[in-house]
Amino acid sequence: MEAKLASEQNDHIRQRLGSHFVLNALSNVIALVRTEQTSRAVDALHLLSDILREVAHADQDAMYSLEEELSFLEKYLAFQKIRFPELNVKWDIAEGTRELL
Q1: What is the pLDDT of the chain when averaged over all its residues?
Q2: Among 13, 36, 76, 88, which is most buried by a count of CB atoms within 10 Å?
Q3: CA angle at residue 13 from 93 to 31, to 5 degrees?
Q4: What DSSP letter does each residue of 48-100 carry, written as one string?
Q5: Looking at per-residue confidence, does 20 or 5 come out higher?
Q6: Can you tell me the distance from the alpha carbon of 23 to that of 27, in angstroms, rounded to the nearest whole number?
Q7: 82-85 contacts, C-beta under 8 A, 24 or more apart
Q8: What's the rounded Cα separation, in Å, for the pair 101 and 97?
Q9: How confident is the model at residue 18 (pLDDT cuts 50, 70, 90)?
């Protein structure tokens, strides 16, 4: 039963990470290293590590505040900006809503 639970948890993590995202992310970091943008590559790896850690430890049934979701999205978008430098996002969030679940 424990093995089945562990297997289901691993499957869930794999689905949430999405191999397409991870492969693109690693390709982006490799490109930075190859072009000797070491500082940007290190920053990208830190962002990727934070993103993967949050996804791996997220409880699919948990409720998160809008603030927590935005924090995660900001990291994700910062990482995506490596691939799409022209990416700009403007948040239009009503006051007093960031603490809502």
Answers
A1: 85
A2: 76
A3: 75
A4: HHHHHHHHHH--TT----HHHHHHHHHHHHHHHHHH-TT--------TT-TT-
A5: 20
A6: 6
A7: 82/28, 82/29, 82/32, 82/40, 82/44, 83/24, 83/28
A8: 9
A9: low
Taking residue 97's Cβ as centre, other Cβ atoms within 10 Å add up to: 10
Residue with tokens 């940007």: 40
- In this prediction, residue 11 has a pLDDT band, given cuts at 50, 70 and 90, of low
Tokens of 75: 């990291």
Between 93 and 21, name the one with better pLDDT. Answer: 93
Q: How many CA atoms lie within 13 Å of 30's alpha carbon, on the beta-carbon side?
A: 6
Calculate mean pLDDT across residues 18-45: 90
